[in-house]
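Researcher: Batch entry, complex prediction.
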Amino acid sequence: MSITTEPKVVKPYGALYVAEYRIRNMMRFKALIVMVSIGNPFLYLLSIGVGVGALIDSNNLIDGVPYLTFLAPALLANAAIAGGMDETVFPTLHGFKWGKIFFGINSTPITGSQIAIGVFLAAMARVVFLVTIYWIVLYLFGALETSYSWLAIPTAIFAGACFAAMMLALAAKMENDNLFFTFISRFVIMPLFLFSGTFFPLSAMPIYLQWIGWISPLWHATELGRFLTYGREISNQMLFLHVAFLSVILIVGLFFAVRYYTRRLAK
Amino acid sequence: MIIATAVEIADRRAGRLGDKYYAGRARSVMNRNFTAFKSSTWLVVLSGFIEPVLYLFAFGFGLGQFIGDVEVSNNVISYAVFIAPGLLATSAMNGAIYDSTWNVFFKMHESRLYQGMLATSLGPLDVALGEIAWALLRGLIYAIGFVAIVAPLGLIPSWWGILAIPASVLIAFGFAAIGMAITSYISSFQQMGAINLALLPMFLFSGAFYPIEVFPESAQILIKALPLHHGVSLIRGLTLGEIDISLLGHAGYFVIMIALGLFFTTKRLTALFMR
Amino acid sequence: MTTNLIQAHGLTKRYGDFVAVAGIDFHVAKGESFGLLGPNGAGKSSTMRIIAATSQRTGGDIKILDKDPNLHGPQIRAHLGVVPQQDNLDTELTVEQNLFVYGRYFGLSSSFIKNKIEELLDFAQLVEKRDVKVDALSGGMKRRLTIARALISEPDILMLDEPTTGLDPQARHILWDRLFRLKEQGVTLVITTHYMDEAEQLCDRLVVMDKGKIMAEDSPAGLIKTYSTKEVLEVRFGSERNAEMSEKLKQHCERIEVLPDRILMYADDAEKVLEEIIKQGIHPITSLVRRSSLEDVFLRLTGRSLIE
Ligand SMILES: Nc1ncnc2c1ncn2[C@@H]1O[C@H](COP(=O)(O)OP(=O)(O)O)[C@@H](O)[C@H]1O
Ligand SMILES: [Mg+2]
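Model: Structure tokens for the complex:
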């Protein structure tokens, strides 16, 4: 696809053109995306929710609710994060290294920051789609207790946005993709996924490990989600802190994403 | 001393069965992998161990506090003891599948490494066997590493547990053979994505994280048909020291997988390597 | 027993319904330098892969050293050194490791390979780069390394698929020099190219390929002699006027070709043609007298340019 419009016209919409290109690209995989979006929540809820849930609920309830209910908001936020990462890491590596598409786009009036924002927006479109489906499946499983549990959709999307922005920045910065994958996925993403109060409360970990949760957007989003889906008791200050933390990550992430994109394109 | 030329070396095998597929030098492919492995970062090397260990800590010790003990047939064991073998089997599967699908696909279509190998007097079977053997060797080292970490934590109650190491190599062999056969039918990254999708239910419903008895009988039949369930049961039987005839059944499942996988891989070698 | 190392009859390669190589006949004799000249998509690489016993023909016959590549792949490949169109060096390894590992694929002893590596690094002018990872090499260095790698087994036939495509002029000349030395040493070369100057420089004999077929076969000089005149006059009148002018110019030369940007007038003495047309009051914007090349042969045979 070539974008040949007058600079004046492109300026405000440049990011949208890039987003459109990315979404068109995703559409080629739409069957797979829809299958994963529906399949994932079913499989996780049935296996971990029901299977592990049976082991836990027969012993004691975490937070006074069935395990499925406890787990649901964490899975929701995690799905958003995974989706946000998928649609930023691969397109970035592809755009810079494997396919070098970004350099082509950048030779039109579209700027590096517009490419970064465009990729981000497209990723968010995917996240919104999959979080909505996920929420519906959670609802069908009876894992949502409040009448306003749909509010957990935006908080999950928020978490997805944070990771998308961070990954956008990191993937543009790292030039060694092999190391990047291995290192980030095994030493950062995996521990954050496992130790962010996802499967059990943060308080069940030794105090010297609990910081992992505090720096993890997943934990903050999950806490907000738990507050919204089954009314976990959380003070107003803490709620504010969760929102503030996620906002900071998002802003910082986007700032660096734009900066690293611009720099790498200028190389 | 007379040094043999490439032609003399190749002609030595001429006339033997399968001489157009196999030059008897799978080792040279392993040698290549070892050379690449030596110069890769230690972080990448180490990271092979880390995944099952992290899962073990999160689920076994973290979630385990809320689960307490689990009853398996006539044993009452802690949750960490319950999932440790499950994680070993799962990581054997993941490693083997990765090596035989993504890795093979990449070396085939992206880096064109195999084109380079097959421009020499190697045959396609040398490449296939060399790659599988290397994957198994690495799997063996990771399995030893995992056992070395969990045994001191008391998570392998029986001495039979030593056999979990060769068992996990057997499991890896089964998945690698099938994985390579499947890769020979694949032509795009999209289809590769579908493999990951198929692995997820196997991972989640293998009985690695909870006894599959929580599901109704009919669902259990389905689960028991999946290969990873047999891998988990085999290794769990060994680590718990519950030795009976069923273990042979589980092992047999993988022997059949290996045979089928190798049969189709060999049949598809030309399709896989000589398009 | 023939002295031909390669002998093909009606060689055909289809990909699905698409015919990439449409029944070609050719042979390559020992010690000669044989070229396949043709534009992109002509079927050169497909032919090369069949000769290299890494792709199976779908029709016809081919013997390499009197063996059928479908049946004796490893034995045939032991005689060959292959330089594919796209480099497929092992990017995880260094220059030296690439050579060593490749030698082991042939089963060669490590003492033999180690000696050979010194010789080849020198030949490829890569001695200083021996411990560098392949990714850090320039395009020309990668190409030279690929050629060095193909030579590790001391092959009887060296197969080069577009050895200099994508290289800058200086890198191309270095490479040509290296290939010339091999030729002098008596290595049989099979080369594909879509550069006529490369074909003229390196090939003793060549076939011109287009759309999977062989259009002509001879030495470069022979082809020019058969299919073109000694010289060519290139004239330009600006793209609108070229067609109109060609009518007037026709009578002054043996043959005329009208290209979008210029007119080619074929004659044995092009200088004289130029004088004549100027006398007639025809004044081109630019004019150029040159010797005929394989480009002209190709144009004559197919009506198209080699490089589009
Ligand atoms: N593996 C393949 N599958 C399908 N078509 C192919 C394949 N390889 C080559 N082709 C097609 O065959 C034709 C000839 O290709 P090739 O032999 O590479 O030509 P050349 O080397 O002369 O440029 C081209 O049209 C190309 O697209
Ligand atoms: Mg070609």
